[in-house]
Amino acid sequence: MPERNARRRRGRENENNSENEVTERHLQERPANSSLIISILITSIIFIAVCAYGHNNSPINAVEIENVVEVELEGPFAVNEKLSHGKRIAMRAPESCAEADDKKLYVGLRDGRVVCIHPSNDGEIGAGKVENITTGVIEGAVNTSDAWGHGVPLGIRLRGQSLYVMDAIYGFYVIDLPTKSLKILIEPDVVTPPMKFPNDFDISADEKTVYFTDSSEKYPITELMSEVLEGSCTSRLIKYDMLTQKLDVVKDGLCFGNGVQLIDDESMVIVPETTRYRVNWIDTKTWEIKHFLHLPAMPDNVR
What CATH number is attached to the domain comprising 175? Predict the structure, then answer.
């Protein structure tokens, strides 16, 4: 009997010890669990606060993009290899080029330079030496942004010995090729409101009228992604009289109007809207859109 009682006492003691161990373990785990929950709550609050701050203070005011049509990659838009077999000329982001009668190519580069690519000795176009026509910097000129420290020539047209350039930073200028002298014709701030993103242009056959795009009233080219993400339609088509220097905004509300190309009889001007995946034919008398074509990708320059 005494032994049985002793075993019972030892059993109760073991049970008590086990209960005490469990209780101590719970007490140790509870602070850890509480710390984890508090950390999650604090992190969530910080995340929500950052998102709210970003939403309320973001310079981007994104708009709903409408009237974009999905175009299948078939027919004239079928995937092909037509450009895969060409010869690549290593240059930094060439945007626009003009070919002269003597087989020279004039090209605008992202680093601000306008260069001339000479033909090779045997006459192959684009295979000769590369000559700098401009340095890419116009000292003291009005600019749309000084973030990059140089210009960005986007549109180029050749008329005789005059090379006309639309620069996203400096505006519209002409280069006399024999002397390489440069003259600014349209500064960004002479348009109301001032241009932010001068892009491309075309010149009438009589060389009296220039049609050009200002792709955005809000963002310069140095903030291109902000313009694309916002998707707003503040682009303008502007008409410039070369004789009187008069400027007229003939079409506004375009969605990143980009390239410019007059048709042969100059009754219409072709202007792509990059962020709406389409190309417009605009009447040069009424300035109404006569035709448009949806594309499967974002159009840029047009020639």
Answer: 2.40.10.500
pTM (2 decimals)?
Answer: 0.82
The length of the chain is 303
pLDDT tens track for 99-155: 999 999 999 999 999 999 999 999 999 999 999 999 999 999 999 999 999 999 999
Domain that holds residue 75: 61-89+191-303
Q: Omega before 193 cis (within 30°)? A: yes
User: Considering 185, 210, 242, which residue would you say is the last residue of a domain?
Assistant: 185
